[in-house]
Design a protein that fits this description.
Helix content is 40%, strand content 5%. By secondary structure, it is mainly α. It has a single domain, classed as Transferase(Phosphotransferase), domain 1, CATH 1.10.510. A hairpin with a 5-residue loop joins strand 2 and strand 3. The longest helix is centred in the N-terminal third of the chain and has 20 residues. One of its GO terms (molecular function) is transmembrane receptor protein tyrosine kinase activity. It comes from Drosophila lebanonensis (Fruit fly). It is found in: Membrane.
Length: 200
């Protein structure tokens, strides 16, 4: 595996981004890259299973590299795979249906991606910090979700909420997320492809 000089995204957000003023558009360049990587995995019928900011590495020129494929599976068609309860599970990034014990599929990765967007826009905060993991299912089942981050636009928060839809089939695909994120970034006065070529 290639060396990632800036470490993982969670620590990078905490240690680097908090020392400078970052706009939503600058932060969303990270989200676009991760969505593109997940779209590629989705197209190859690969489910990651543990998508979180801590499992994204920050390479040269601040290029995001999705890592830690320990939970990943190749699946045929639209099938998912069962969660092994003996594994240490990423509870705070798991979808509501996987917390119920249902199979993990690509729509579960979409839920996790919504949490990653929230991590990016809170500069690395811990999701559901004041909710015990044992109470998380009940918290979500009552319709609660992570709150809108201060750096987050209403439009971006709507996208997060779509990722956290309690009905898996009503969540966006990664292809749709790439399209919408790129549109939002470009609509804020920047060029996402040009931004990816620049350092921050």
């Amino acid at each position: 595996m290639e060396y990632a000089p800036h470490g993982n995204l969670k620590d990078f957000l905490k240690q680097i981004c908090r020392d400078s003023i970052a706009t939503e558009q600058e932060l969303m360049v990270f989200g676009v890259q991760i969505a593109r990587g997940m779209h590629f995995l989705e197209s190859k019928k690969c489910i990651h299973g543990d998508l979180a900011a801590r499992n994204v590495l920050v390479g040269d020129n601040f290029i995001m590299k999705i890592a830690d494929f320990g939970f990943s599976r190749y699946v045929k068609g639209t099938n998912g795979f069962p969660i092994n309860p003996n594994n240490k599970l990423p509870i705070r990034w798991m979808s509501i249906e996987t917390l119920e014990g249902k199979d993990y599929d690509s729509s579960c990765d979409v839920w996790s991606f919504g949490v990653v967007l929230w991590e990016i826009l809170t500069l690395g905060e811990e999701p559901y910090l004041h909710t015990a993991t044992t109470n998380l299912y009940n918290f979500l089942n009552m319709g609660n979700r992570l709150e809108k981050p201060p750096l987050c636009s209403n439009e971006m928060y709507v996208m997060m909420r779509q990722c956290w839809n309690s009905v898996p089939k009503q969540r966006p695909t990664f292809g749709e997320l790439v399209r919408d994120l790129e549109y939002m970034c470009n609509n804020q006065g920047g060029n996402i492809n040009a931004a990816l070529q620049n350092e921050y």
